[in-house]
Write a structure and sequence with these properties.
single chain, 253 residues, alpha+beta, three-stranded antiparallel sheet, 43% helix
């Protein structure tokens, strides 16, 4: 796949507010099931960077939303098109616990296949997929929705939590979750820390991108060096500087 052009980093850290699903908008179907967009192409590019061998079938490819901010030039357009792709149920936006305000993206098809692969022996899971995952673009659900609207029993909610498809968000509220995400969080955090530590320990806390890409950092091997570089650039953790020697990455704080 041809590599997408990587634009300048945006320094703003503001994130759009993400709301829970309500009974009024639950289950609305979009008129069109596909959204041809630059965002979709960017997602496919980031999807291709994930080292699937490193995941070893444990998880589907996971994209951190702010990685898109380094691939596309317009943050507003990213947010708009991500929401469009959520509305058509092509992607799931998830809070995996990497950071409180950090959201990840998984293609809905990948999510459903992953859950069915690891939890196919639980009948309640199929009901959860059909009535929650494939019907809503929400990142979380509350007890009123699950019990009163979808008629899940308390013990069934507990089974969903134990199965890893729900994580407690607050009292009576749950994040829609990805089973086995702890493996991703562990390697994501280690890889990110290793790259930032390498830059921080470099002279003047800066390093040429081409030099960083050649570093043999064990902590980055599971997800891939390029995956981690897109993440630190999209998050604003480093600044990109054009130099006569090439692109320089610098930590300013």
């Amino acid at each position: 796949m041809k590599r997408a052009k990587i634009p300048d980093v945006f320094k703003t850290k503001k994130r759009p507010r993400i709301q829970s699903q309500t009974s009024e908008d639950w289950g609305d179907e979009a008129a069109d099931s596909t959204v041809p967009s630059d965002c979709h192409a960017a997602l496919m590019y980031l999807h291709s960077l994930v080292n699937t061998d490193g995941l070893a079938g444990r998880l589907p490819p996971i994209i951190i939303k702010h990685q898109l901010y380094n691939v596309m030039t317009n943050r507003t357009l990213v947010d708009k098109q991500v929401n469009e792709l959520r509305d058509t149920k092509e992607i799931k936006l998830l809070n995996l616990g990497t950071r409180p305000d950090e959201f990840s993206i998984v293609f809905t098809k990948d999510y459903v296949e992953h859950v069915n692969k690891h939890l196919s022996d639980k009948p309640i899971i199929k009901r959860f997929l059909s009535s929650v995952v494939e019907k809503t673009n929400s990142v979380s659900v509350d007890k009123q929705m699950l019990v009163e609207h979808l008629e899940f029993k308390d013990e069934e909610i507990t089974e969903l939590v134990n199965g890893g498809v729900l994580n407690v968000r607050d009292f009576g509220s749950w994040w829609i979750a990805l089973p086995g995400a702890g493996f991703f969080i562990r390697h994501f955090t280690k890889g990110r820390d290793a790259i930032l530590r390498t830059i921080r320990n470099s002279k003047y806390k800066q390093i040429l991108l081409r030099d960083l890409e050649t570093k043999d950092l064990k902590a980055t091997k599971t997800l891939g060096m390029k995956y981690h570089i897109e993440e630190i650039l999209g998050s604003g953790a480093v600044t990109k500087i054009d130099t006569t020697s090439g692109l320089m990455l610098r930590i300013d704080r």
